[in-house]
Amino acid sequence: MSYTASSEKATGPTAFAPYLDAVANVFHPVAGPVMNTYGRFHGWKESMGLVQPGTVENLTRDVQQVHLANWTFDGARADVAKVVSANPAFQLTHSFSLGSTTRPAAYNFGAIFANASSFLQGGIDGTGTVTMRANQTWSPTDITKVQGQLTDKPGQSMVQIEHDHLGPHYSFSWKSMNPGVLDGTGIHIASLLHSFSPRLSLGFETVIQHPQPSILETSTSYVAKLTSLPNALAALTPSVPGQPAPFTPSWSATAQLQPSGNIQTTYYQKLSDKVDVALDLQTIVQPASMLGPAKREALATLGAKYDFRMATFRGQLDSAGKIGMYLEQRFTPAFAFLVAGEIDHAKNTSKFGVGIMIESSSMTQEEMIAAGMLAPA
């Protein structure tokens, strides 16, 4: 009996209840219709089967994974990595490169630490330049990223802070480079991408250049993304409550209208589990000015990626007559041989690079099997 009485006393009305009810009754005629309208609008969006479209920054990520811009190199390189721990992940890296006659030899030492919510990466090269990168995942919908570089070269030290918010049917990102705390100077980028149908997403990206308190310039580009139909079952059974599960489209097409009037369009298609193709078309429209005559050009780039059992091959061809390739051949899970080449027929130039990647570990074989780094014998 005493337990029941104490429970009723704890859950009974307080002295502030009449005042709270009075405040609620005052605002209900205004807030009630607004909340009901929002509820109906949210239910209507849920019934359309909208998906999470990703961020504007990763709009052409699939194309970048196929084309050679982020992969090709010239000269010689060697990457040596040592895995100290798998959970949490901790890895030390040594990178050596011997470039062409216009680029001297370089060395970089780096370290990577990662767990379920944090990612830390730092490095220092032979010139004393220090770089760092940190990602912190606060929730399935919010992630903060920080990048920095410290060097003795004037004007090349920088810090960049960004935050991504992934809503159920949209994504919003804010990025600031060398932000001024007191006067708001720096370069700021805001982007929004919203899904309007299961296949179509529209958005924009605004760049605010504020190098000095008296100078402020803004420019906005508009983006669109069209994909194949998502998997209906994945869209209706989200892995995170209130957030549709991500999906991998079999093909996607993007378009970006830049402030200068130039247009960039891309198309990516996954032909099979082992073959991807990507096409990129960029227009260059430049009016006559003191910097040079008017220019109206276009560049189309076609690339393909083939995944074999122990190798990955990328090939690329563009309308300017440039042909390139990149091969990553793994002889063992811990050793890979790299070959990259490029021929520019219009300029009569060529590039060639070879490299190796070696990965060692201080973990035992049983620990590597438990971490998924090796297949069980």
From TrEMBL:
InterPro entries on file: Porin_dom_sf, Porin_Euk/Tom40, Tom40
Domain of life: Eukaryota
Membrane topology note: Multi-pass membrane protein
GO biological process: monoatomic ion transport; protein import into mitochondrial matrix
Protein location: Mitochondrion outer membrane
Keyword Membrane applies: yes
Gene Ontology cellular component annotations, sorted alphabetically: mitochondrial outer membrane; pore complex
Keywords (A to Z) from UniProt: Ion transport, Membrane, Mitochondrion, Mitochondrion outer membrane, Porin, Protein transport, Transmembrane, Transmembrane beta strand, Transport
GO MF annotations in UniProt: porin activity; protein transmembrane transporter activity
One Pfam family, short name: Porin_3
Family of the protein in this entry: Belongs to the Tom40 family.
Protein task: Channel-forming protein essential for import of protein precursors into mitochondria.
Full protein name: Translocase of outer membrane 40 kDa subunit
Native organism taxonomy: Eukaryota, Fungi, Dikarya, Basidiomycota, Agaricomycotina
